[in-house]
Design brief:
Blueprint (H helix, E strand, L loop, with lengths): L13 H14 L3 E6 L5 E6 L1 H10 L4 E5 L13 E5 L10 H4 L6 E5 L8 H10 L5 E3 L20 E3 L21 E3 L21 E3 L21 E2 L1 E3 L18 E6 L7 H7 L7 E7 L7 H4 L3 H7 L8 E5 L21 E5 L18 E5 L6 E2 L1 H4 L13 E2 L5 E5 L6 E2 L5 E2 L5 E5 L9 H4 L6 E5 L3 H7 L5 H4 L4 E4 L7 H5 L2
Parallel strand pairs: 3-4, 4-5, 5-6, 6-7, 7-8, 8-9, 9-10, 11-12, 12-13, 13-14, 14-15, 15-16, 16-19, 17-20, 18-21, 19-22, 22-23, 23-24
Antiparallel strand pairs: 1-2
């Protein structure tokens, strides 16, 4: 894509064209030894040996790999693509011959964190290699990016990821009008993006997870209407506004929105129309205030949360109230997420009930953390109508739930019990800092799929109930059990009580 080999159409963007071509070549056995992720996507593969040999024959002299310790004075021919392997003993070395390879389209620098590329070395790269389309300087201990990077006007892919000492990008990055991919993952000290980021109208992927500064996102982001990837979007008092996301209709994958605690206008949240982003699979909504006092930040946040209705195909959702939300209930749209596999709910200080989560048929992992007003986890949590009998055997809740964690529910006393078919796939349960919980429900202890039980810094009552005569046959089936009371009371004390 960065080399200009793929052309999008009115109905298909470049990624779709590339995927179609890749699938076609795969069907012809050009590729083999596929490595897949959990979702069935291809992580990497190998060329068939004969295809590889033929490709090497065709591009001889164009693609090279060299080590930083190389004594080569000049290249034979005009290489277009170069992989430079940096070594610990040559921590600052970029061979001189690279600066003379003015026809280079690709420069990939493989480093191992022992290497350091100085500003002077980068200046030479930017001054000499003006035909570059791909530049990868990941993990190279870069502390400062020279403003001369703006000379690389043909650059399509810039990878500066894992340069944790890099504190800012020069404004001249915004002169790279052909840039399609900007990767700054893991640049932890990066203070901000350049102010004129909106000039990069061709940008498709902004990979910026691991950049935590609250004043990170500038104004003008709404101009980046072609963005497919935006790992993190920060709402700030003097920078980007929430409704800037409204024009980014092609976002897919993972999105984290921070600074939502300072959004007071519900209409601003409605304009985002998150539910229309059908290709988003993971969403995190953070209601922090980005430096503002919490009492100012939480006045309208509950309405903003309800207005940020998520797309129905979402697989992972994280909601963090940062103890600033005044909401007393969780958003109603959660129950519409029928494909949701992972749900995390953090720090909602006023929520008293966990409602309707049992109606999420695909949910596999649930974590509830920091809910100081929750006292009872009852039938509303399971998604059971009040009119149904508590002993009804026809009720099915959380059919695919495998992992559950309850953390810091200080006032939680009761977990509704019964004989229904609930959490029938549960394999792991964690309870931490729940000092008033009295006992676990029968459907948990009788669950034959439960393999891991962790209880720590929680009430002695919930633990002592585990070792009553009628419960011991059930817990004996649990292969991995780590149990401590509110003062670190050992499991052994109960076993020999």
């Amino acid at each position: 894509m960065a080399q200009g080999f793929l052309k999008g159409t009115q109905h298909q963007d470049m990624e779709m064209v590339g995927e179609r071509n890749f699938n076609g070549l795969s069907m012809c056995f050009f590729f083999q030894d596929f490595e897949m992720d959990e979702e069935g996507g291809i992580i990497k593969c190998k060329m068939h040996d004969r295809v590889h040999d033929f490709a090497i024959f065709l591009i001889r002299g164009e693609c090279l790999t060299m080590e930083s310790s190389s004594r080569i004075q000049a290249f034979n021919g005009r290489p277009h693509h170069l992989l430079l392997m940096m070594h610990k003993e040559d921590s600052t070395a970029i061979p001189t011959c690279i600066y003379n390879a003015e026809s280079l389209h690709t420069l990939l620098i493989e480093s191992n964190r022992w290497n350091f590329i100085s500003k002077i070395k980068l200046l030479k790269v930017f001054d000499k290699l003006k035909c570059l389309r791909i530049l990868k300087c990941s993990n190279c201990e870069i502390k400062e990016c020279p403003k001369q990077i703006g000379k690389l006007i043909h650059l399509r892919h810039l990878d500066l990821s894992s340069n944790w000492q890099l504190k800012e990008l020069p404004e001249t990055v915004c002169h790279l009008y052909n840039l399609l991919i900007l990767d700054i993952i893991g640049c932890y000290q990066l203070k901000r993006l350049p102010c004129r980021m909106g000039n990069l109208v061709n940008l498709l992927h902004l990979r910026n997870e691991g950049t935590s500064n609250p004043n990170f996102m500038p104004k003008g982001m709404e101009k980046l209407t072609d963005l497919r990837t935006l790992s993190k979007f920060a709402v700030t008092h003097k920078g980007a506004a929430l409704n800037d996301l409204g024009n980014m209709n092609h976002l897919h994958g993972t999105l984290e929105i921070t600074g939502l605690g300072i959004v007071r206008d519900v209409k601003e949240a409605e304009k985002v129309q998150l539910q229309s982003r059908k290709r988003l699979t993971s969403l995190s909504l953070q209601f922090d205030a980005n430096g503002l006092p919490m009492r100012q930040a939480n006045e309208s946040s509950s309405l903003v949360l309800e207005a940020l209705k998520s797309p129905s195909d979402l697989e992972t959702l994280s909601l963090n109230g940062h103890y600033s939300l005044c909401a007393c209930i969780l958003p109603s749209w959660i129950v519409s997420l029928t494909k949701l596999k992972e749900l995390v709910i953090w720090q909602f200080k006023n929520v008293e009930k966990l409602s309707l989560m049992g109606k999420l048929p695909s949910l596999e992992s649930l974590r509830v953390d920091g809910m100081p007003k929750v006292k009872n986890v009852v039938i509303e949590f399971l998604g059971i109508e009040m009119s149904l009998s508590l002993s009804s055997s026809s009720v099915l809740a959380f059919p695919n739930l495998q992992r559950v964690s309850f953390v810091s529910l200080e006032e939680w006393e009761e977990w509704d019990s019964g004989s229904r078919e609930i959490m029938s796939s549960l394999s792991s349960l964690t309870i931490h800092e729940c000092l008033k919980l009295k006992k676990l429900p029968d459907y948990i202890l009788q669950n034959t799929t439960l393999q891991e039980l962790t209880i720590s810094f929680s009430s002695d009552a919930v633990i002592s109930n585990l070792f009553k005569e009628d419960c011991r046959p059930h817990i004996s089936r649990i292969s991995n059990m780590d149990v401590e009371g509110e003062k670190g009371t050992s499991l052994l004390l109960y076993l020999f009580h």
